[in-house]
Design a protein that fits this description.
Number of helices: 2
Helix content: 25-40%
Strand content: 25-35%
CATH class of one domain: Mainly Beta
Structural class: alpha+beta
CATH architecture of one domain: Sandwich
Radius of gyration: 33 Å
Strand order of the largest sheet: 1-8-3-6
Oligomer: single chain
Largest sheet: 4 strands, antiparallel
Order of helices and strands: HEEEEEEEEH
CATH topology of one domain: Jelly Rolls
CATH superfamily of one domain: GOLD domain
Length: about 220
């Protein structure tokens, strides 16, 4: 018999399952949340993105070059009046946090104009504003229950898991790109070595043949 006031195991398990499901559903981003994009940036090209932001909103821009060249790109962020808030040249990855000083459309651009032959693959995450609370505190008198506190903890843990998965996917894609590039260079080097070895072998054969060939001499008679 369970003690008075205690819950059966199946009830506790069901509570944890419902709590996890609720946290997963609340992880779906709403309007004005984060924007994650991976795009191709050709050589001698520039790509810009625009976002409407309200005054006082805290924003974070994070980017990383996944493939191409020396894995670097130029980045520039401007406010609605064209004032430069952030500018970096030939960066592989970086993160910048700012608070919008005015309402309007903010612009951030990625440039590969310094590159002549190689195109880049760029990933960026633009976070606008803070995530809404899991359980809003408006019209709330009592504190969070034990199940609600567990839901908040699971929600935060799942957000951390998503961030770690994103960074590990980026590192895996970058490592795969470098490995494929190295494999291509090794293949070309092997073909070049084979051709050089073939040319040297043929040259040695003709050189040895010239050592053992008979040299024919010609004489000319001079009449009186």
């Amino acid at each position: 018999m369970p003690r008075p006031g205690s819950l059966p195991r199946w009830a506790a398990a069901a509570g944890r399952w419902v709590c996890g499901l609720l946290a997963l559903l609340l992880l779906v981003p709403g309007p004005g949340g984060a924007s994650e994009i991976t795009f191709e940036l050709p050589d001698n090209a520039k790509q810009c993105f625009y976002e409407d932001i309200a005054q006082g909103t805290k924003c974070t821009l994070e980017f990383q070059v996944i493939t191409g060249g020396h894995y670097d790109v130029d980045c520039r962020l401007e406010d609605p009046d064209g004032k430069v808030l952030y500018k970096e040249m030939k960066k592989q990855y970086d993160s910048f946090t700012f608070t919008a000083s005015k309402n309007g459309t903010y612009k951030f651009c990625f440039s590969n104009e310094f590159s002549t032959f190689t195109h880049k693959t760029v990933y960026f995450d633009f976070q606008v504003g803070e995530d809404p609370p899991l359980f809003p505190s408006e019209n709330r008198v009592s504190a969070l229950t034990q199940m609600e506190s567990a839901c908040v903890s699971i929600h935060e843990a799942l957000k951390s898991v998503i961030d770690y998965q994103t960074h590990f996917r980026l590192r895996e894609a970058q490592g795969r790109s470098r490995a494929e590039d190295l494999n291509t260079r090794v293949a070309y080097w092997s073909v070049g070595e084979a051709l050089i070895l073939l040319v040297v072998s043929i040259g040695q054969v003709f050189l040895l043949k010239s050592f053992f060939s008979d040299k024919r001499t010609t004489t000319t008679r001079v009449g009186s």
